[in-house]
Amino acid sequence: MSSQNSYLDQVVAQKAEVENELRARKAQRIFRESPAPMPQGEAAAAPGHDSRIQRASGGGGESHAAASHAVDVRITGWWRWKNVIVPPNAYVVHTRRGHSEPLDIGLGVSFRFDPVTDSFLVVPATMQTIIIHANCICKERQGVLVQGYVQWIIDDFRTAYRKLDFSDEYDPMRVVNVQLREQAEAAIKDKVATMSIDDVLADKQPIIKELTARLRHVAEGEGTDKGLGLRIVTVQIKEAVVCSPRVWETLQRPFRAERSKEARLAEITNEEVVRAREAEHAKAVEKEEIETQAEVARLRAAAESAQFDREQGERARRAKVEAETLAAAVAHEKEKIEREAELARLRLEHEITQVGMRQEAENRQAGRQLEFEAARRKIDNDLSEAAVRTRLIEALPGIAEKMPHPQELRSISVGGGDAVSSLVGGLLKLLQSLQNGKANGN
Description:
Helix content: 40-55%
Largest sheet: 4 strands, antiparallel
Mean pLDDT: 77
Structural class: alpha+beta
């Protein structure tokens, strides 16, 4: 059986890791003291300057800190006449050779910088969060993993930059976070060592209270002591977990047994209630079914009776309607016959009236025609021979145009002094003269 102590190995490994983290990474500083200025024509860079800083050509220029730095500081200008532009959410301290106090210190303070005699430190002013994983031993000598976090900010930078190590240019807060994390883990372990497993798992407020008090005493100080110039914002314990699965299962076993007993008793009680409810329900269902069948039979009989009454009433109503319809039809036919006889009589009277009016009109027309013929004959009898001749002369041109043209003219004179013969002869001569004149005109 192996006698290796895994917990001891874990503690030793964590100790080595902490020591490694506490060693500040001494990378090359961005600015170091450099010798006297070199002539402008010198091709090589000054030996005191970091190769990460871009040197400007001519009379001016701009250079930036490396992109991996924690704070984005812009450095502008040329050689010994430079300006350091600090973002508004970062603390800065600017010192110069021969001065015991900083020239510039504060939040977001930009300044003029001479790389030959000056040095500066830039630290983020934002809130920092430390994640804590503390492997603790409780009062029952059982391992408990407590997880939490601490949030802090710099409250007094004049005190903080003197007492804390912000020299890591890539992560200035790294060493401070490691130191505070180790202090927090030690405080948690001290408090958990005096508590039982049940207390640790049930109430985490004692741990939070103890951890807050210790960290604030160290970071903020008391009375005239300003501590480290830091301020603890909040301390929280996320969870506590028992490391041993067997212990954890043992702790859960009474609760699980109690819950199992309560669940079984609740199940038995539930089964009894269900059976009683099922019996009551079956009884109620049978009763309701019998009542439903009786109600259905009553309703069916009432429906059949109502249907029979409706059928008989409908038959009586139909017979009554048919009799009324027949009487109405007889009266209508009688009235129709009377109306047709009245209409035939009126039509006959109208025809007789029209025939009488027609005959009367024809008689009046015949009388007027007779009167007109008598008047015309009277006018014709009243015409003199001279009027007859005048009318004949007026009608001769039309008659002559409609008559065929004769090829030759023969005149036969019959003896007698008859006036009509003389008139006819004169007309013939007149026609011949009219024809000759018409031919000459053409």
